[in-house]
Amino acid sequence: MAIFEHDGVRLHYEVEGDGFPILLIAPGGMRSAHDLWATVPWNPRAALADRYRVVSMDQRNAGRSTAPVSAADGWSTYTADQLTLLDHLGIGECHVLGMCIGGPYIFGLLTSSHDRFRSAVLLQPVGIDGNRDAFVEMFDGWVEEIGPDHPEAGPDDWASFRRNMWGGEFVLTATREQVAACETPLLVMMGDDLYHPQSTSREIASLAPDATLVERWKDDDVVADTDATIKRFLADHTP
Questions:
Q1: Pairwise CA distance, residues 130 & 108, whole Å
Q2: Residue-level pLDDT at 111
Q3: pTM higher than 0.90, yes or no?
Q4: Which of 29, 44, 185, 215 is the most exposed place for a label (fewest CB within 10 A)?
């Protein structure tokens, strides 16, 4: 993997294939990392690199990427990393595809820089619906793992960081009004568990003016259809 450094952050990333670019945001919650794509039912790195310039990355303090931690950290911190990496690679316009925590990351990108993204694919996006405690527990487990490597951050810093990430509502990085105003074409592959509630996927699809919802997509008997659906959607919105 290549390394991009900015403002004390070391981001590990990979570029595969050639063509119109697509930014991938991996699943894994706070551990969102490039290698996790190999563990999911439909792997966009394997499926798309023959026709797109596929950019995948380890988010800060996940995988091999590192960064200092402060009380001000939150969704916008990650959005800035993602946009800065695109700038570094000379990518002005692209698709974005994310799974799990990739859903909020995508809405962070679309609310701040919607004109850079031709389309977005959301695979089982996380959302808040009676499950906040599960996200807090996930965050605290991550802190137990990486905390010893961050002497610059004390308990108050971690608590503020956790509130900034998981104290919000709905899709965490956008209000319902902002999703309803989102003109970017969206393909939503529905979630169906504690972290990825059906209600979040259904509400995104009902609010956004140009959204398509796919209810079944990751079972063995429909993965081939999923592959075709995503490729057709991306092709339809590729300049």
A1: 22
A2: 97
A3: yes
A4: 215
